[in-house]
Amino acid sequence: MIPTITAFKASPDRGRGMARDFRVRWALEEVGQAYDVRLVTFEEMKAAAHLALHPFGQIPTYEADGLALFESGAIVLHIAEGRPGLLPADADGRARAIMWMFAALSTVEPPIVERSMAALLERDQPWYAERLPMLDARVRQRLDELARRLGDADWLDGAFSAGDLMLVTVLRRLGSAGLLEDYPTLNAYIARGEARPAYQRAFAAQLAVFEAASAGG
User: Fold this and answer.
1) Phi and psi (nearest 5°) for 210?
2) DSSP letters along 120-176, please?
3) CA-closest candidate to residue 21, choices 133, 113, 29
4) pTM attached to this predicted model
5) Looking at the chain, which residues constitute the CATH 3.40.30.10 domain(s)?
6) E strand or H helix at 7
7) Which of 146, 153, 148, 144 is nearest to 167 (CA)?
8) Domain with CATH 1.20.1050.10 in the chain
9) pLDDT for 55-75, tens place per residue?
10) What whole-number distance in Å separates Cα of residue 148 and Cα of residue 170?
11) What CATH architecture applies to the domain 91-196?
């Protein structure tokens, strides 16, 4: 059965691959799994039908063969475990790849999201200018640690894995914040992820949704 995922009908990221359904699209493309997409509005995300799939009223969700999942990390892990391409064959390598998935979501992403939300929602507040250096320092600490760990390697642990997929999508959330300018190895790491054919297909698919919505389609 072809899985169905949900995505924003009108994404706030303007089709730039920042919405979390992009991670799922990319994973499906990496393993060669066809999929359907059901687009939902913000109103539909809070309706009973969607809340039955995602109790927090967000995207993405995943449905296939009677299984319904939410949370992008859980969905990507399920995809990676079901088909070759995103997890190493050996047990230790698989465990390390999964470890990096958790690290991307639990350790690296939180300070990045906190900073981006502050820039979006608090920029006009009197405390913003004083708070921003602290938020930047928290992100830079993680970038320092990541750059040191990655070194001159192409990927985190041997071949490209679901851990790299998740971490690239997390780092891309920094966007134009300017915090990656001092980290050429991390910029090159992101660029390698973006150059993958599966990434390109997933990005084109998400951008097409935004372009259709902008055109009134």
Assistant:
1) -65, -45
2) HHSTTSTTHHHHHHHHHHHHHHHHHHHHHHHTT-SSSSSS--HHHHHHHHHHGGGTT
3) 29
4) 0.94
5) 4-85+198-214
6) strand 4-8
7) 146
8) 91-196
9) 999 999 999 999 999 999 999
10) 17
11) Up-down Bundle (1.20)
